[in-house]
Amino acid sequence: MGIKPLYEALSLARNAGLDLVEIAPQAMPPVCKIIDYKKYKYLQGKKNKDAPRVKTGVMKEIKLRPKIGEHDLDVKRKHIQEFLEKKNKVKVLMQFFGREREHIDLGIAIVNRLLASLADYGTPDAPPRRMGNSIVIMLSSKK
Question: Residue 16 — φ and ψ, nearest 5°?
Fold first, then answer.
């Protein structure tokens, strides 16, 4: 319809029994459309509802200590395995407190053993890295 003054555009919309909706307010001059706003919102909601939903993986965190018992480690391993089977990402955090900081090699050995046992279910995103008083590793499920 071209460029029209606001009062004229509003009268055209009223005469048609429709609404004047601003489509692009940042444009010079602003772009408007004469449409049925309720129908437009209904169709937008329907389009969003019918759109395929993409499931984003949830981040799960498992905390370990270097003095963890063998059975406790097996329980943690099973939890990690379940998370990876559900296509979640898992953050494994080996924390060191007090004198445990002197024996980081024990923690690294436990993390490596854990990674070896979970090789069928997930892969590390990066090698284990040390952050302050902890060792952090991210695991993603296998495709």
Answer: -85, -10
